[in-house]
């Protein structure tokens, strides 16, 4: 509980700083944006990263005037098997266009803090993504490649296909299916389906069911209904 309280406090401090300095920062640096949010569970690549419990997060992102280059950072509370209680991320990438598709090529560095001594608690990850809209219909294909994952897991790859549909100006439904192959760790398929709604300007509420085909691997793999809210500014 003490570690979780410290992690929540760290995320709250980052969120408060974003809220306090965002107006001045955005006036000085074009393309700077922030986000804060919370959810009933932290789901990544289909799995729970908060032990089926709630979490909070804050983000800060920058993009160039032409939208081609971007970079960012994030902090989130976690509860994962290596004992870590919060995660920090750094990312950088490019978003070119080709043959009508929006591409996104990026590198991420993720570190998990307060993990048990001697645990492999950080890794580098590469992402390639392609997305396209056909009227109200959206399609996204992506793959993540991790040369040396967290904990005992070594090489890993997550590939996913996602389809979304805008049913109203403020409402969207979507579904995704993916597969995670891991060396020295469980490989599994995962999927989610749900909807999101803009409840207020710059504020999105999402409700989604997540599940996998590997419940026997532990509670992190079980299905769950997750609600999240994020405010971007």
Keywords, separated by commas or semicolons:
233 residues; mainly beta; 1 helix; 15 strands; 12% helix; disordered N terminus
How do the helices and strands line up, and which of them pair or pack?
Elements: H1 2-28, E1 32-39, E2 43-44, E3 47-48, E4 55-63, E5 69-77, E6 86-94, E7 97-98, E8 101-113, E9 122-134, E10 137-146, E11 156-168, E12 171-182, E13 188-200, E14 203-212, E15 224-232
Antiparallel strand pairs: 1-4, 1-15, 2-3, 4-5, 5-6, 6-8, 7-8, 8-9, 9-10, 10-11, 11-12, 12-13, 13-14, 14-15
Structural overview:
The chain is mainly β. It has one helix and 15 strands. The protein has one helix at 2-28, and strands at 32-39, 43-44, 47-48, 55-63, 69-77, 86-94, 97-98, 101-113, 122-134, 137-146, 156-168, 171-182, 188-200, 203-212, 224-232. A twelve-stranded antiparallel beta barrel has the order 1-4-5-6-8-9-10-11-12-13-14-15. Strands 2-3 form a two-stranded antiparallel ribbon. The model is unreliable at 1-28 (pLDDT under 50).
What gyration radius follows from the Cα positions, in whole Å? 18 Å
Helical content band: 10-25%
Topology as a string of helices (H) and strands (E): HEEEEEEEEEEEEEEE
Mean pLDDT, nearest integer?
Answer: 89
What is the makeup of the main sheet? 12 strands, antiparallel, barrel
End-to-end CA span: 31 Å
Strand order of the largest sheet: 1-4-5-6-8-9-10-11-12-13-14-15
Question: Approximately what portion of the residues adopt beta-strand conformation?
Answer: over 45%
Number of helices: 1
Low-confidence stretches: 1-28
Q: How many strands in all?
A: 15
- Shape from CA axes? globular
Main structural class: mainly beta
């Amino acid at each position: 509980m003490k570690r979780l309280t410290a992690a929540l406090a760290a995320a709250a401090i980052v969120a408060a700083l974003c809220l306090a300095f965002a107006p001045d920062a955005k006036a000085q640096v074009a393309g700077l944006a922030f986000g804060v949010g919370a959810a009933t569970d932290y789901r990544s690549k289909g799995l729970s990263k908060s032990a089926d419990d709630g979490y909070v997060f804050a983000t800060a992102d920058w993009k160039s005037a032409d939208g081609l280059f971007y970079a960012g950072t994030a902090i989130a509370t976690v509860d994962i098997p290596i004992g870590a209680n919060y995660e920090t991320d750094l990312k950088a990438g490019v978003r070119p266009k080709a043959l009508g598709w929006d591409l996104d090529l990026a590198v991420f560095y993720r570190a998990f803090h307060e993990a048990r001594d001697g645990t492999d608690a950080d890794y580098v990850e590469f992402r390639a993504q392609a997305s396209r809209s056909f009227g109200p219909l959206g399609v996204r294909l992506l793959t993540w490649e991790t040369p040396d994952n967290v904990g005992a897991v070594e090489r890993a790859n997550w590939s996913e296909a996602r389809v979304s549909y805008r049913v109203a100006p403020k409402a969207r439904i979507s579904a995704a299916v993916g597969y995670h192959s891991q060396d020295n760790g469980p490989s599994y398929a995962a999927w989610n389906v749900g909807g999101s709604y803009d409840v207020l300007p710059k504020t999105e509420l999402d409700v989604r069911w997540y599940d996998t085909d590997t419940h026997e691997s532990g509670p992190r793999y079980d299905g769950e209904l997750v609600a999240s809210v994020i405010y971007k500014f």
